Amino acid sequence: MYTVDDIKEIYKFKNRASDEEIIQNINDGLNLDISNFAILICAILIASIGLNMNSVAVIIGAMLISPLMGAIIGIGYGIGTYNTDYIKKSFVLLIFEIAISLATATLYFLLTPVKGASAEIISRTTPTIFDVVIAFVGGTAGMIGLSRKRPGNVLPGVAIATALMPPLCTAGYGIAHLNIKIFLGAGYLFFINSFFIAVSTFLVVKALKLPKKTFIDKKREKNIKRLTIILSILVMIPSVISAATMVTQTVNDQNLNNFINTQINKNSYVLNKSINKANKEINLVIFGSELTNDNIQDLDSKLQYYGFPGYKLKVTQDQSLNLVSYIEKLQQDKNNPVSSLDTNKDENPSQSNTNSNFSSIGNQLKALYPQITDVVIGKGEHTLTTDNNDSTLLVFISEKGNNSLNKDNIKKYLQEATGYKNIILTIA
């Protein structure tokens, strides 16, 4: 049985480094030299390629060698010890690193032949409260790791979790393509990560009672703490709103999918669906077995049981609807070289990721097979099943020349890249 002394022993920070060792660990991350910048450029290029090719493994590799966190922890330490020299040195280093990162990423995305925004790029443009939590907890773990005699694998794990590299690369993509929305979204995500890593570092420094550089009166110290809290709240507000919006849209999308899968005739394909919150409308474009007016009215009355009280159902159906023409119309409407059939007027993030993933796959096909002139990808939702993997993916490829493409190889590639088992592939 544990005694009080045993419990106290558990909570002792046995592996804590000395104050001098902790400061030296922080100093090691503040090297303003050419080798540090060369590593940063390599990391940015690797991360940019990973984002461009939609490869999570490559992105993780880039984060492991990134030197970005050192400057941010330095800022948090400087604020916690009231060391203005540390704050200035760390801030200057961070500005240099941001400038180099943006320049490198922008240059890469200007030169790469694959221009589409992948799902990994899009996912870095909508920060949420979850990113705040990850940055705060990751920064706390990072500073605790630096205060240990043997940090172990804490710092590499923190580098991956807080993900400082991908937002900077995504911001570079936004600059390269003059897309202010992507630039601002990714920039805000990077700011959130940096800010809350610094805040958590500040709190850990206080908890460890590291020596202060200069004496400061209690009133001023209290004002600094109050300012930190106020800034933290202000920075969090947009991310909380974004998270709430994302959760609401995800729930609505799931409810609509559930409605389609359980209520629409099993011989019908839903080619397009959208939720119009302003007009309280559910819009469906259906191909296949025709729905009568009585069917539509019955479906309309059931919307309330799927989380859409007060909504009206609008159905567009045409037995002569040409699938290729319809997909190409969506393609033109969205001004996107490769589009998904599955669109949503509320811009559901998960659907945006699907669209951008299709775009990336189309661009990769063009890079692999230069004879391909156009790729159109669309998702048809068959109502026999709720399993998304059993839905059908419609792919139309145009090629120059005489039928030189291997249909089986392309189909296997599409199955691996999209996760869809059922693919209808047409090459013309």
TrEMBL record:
Annotated segments matching region Disordered: 335-357
InterPro entries cross-referenced by the UniProt entry: DUF389 (IPR005240)
Domain of life: Bacteria
Keyword flag Signal: no
Keywords: Membrane, Transmembrane, Transmembrane helix
Keyword GTP-binding applies: no
TM regions (residue ranges): 34-51, 57-79, 91-109, 129-147, 154-176, 182-205, 226-247
Pfam families: DUF389 (PF04087)
Protein name: TIGR00341 family protein
Species annotation: Clostridium thermobutyricum
Species classification: Bacteria, Bacillati, Bacillota, Clostridia, Eubacteriales
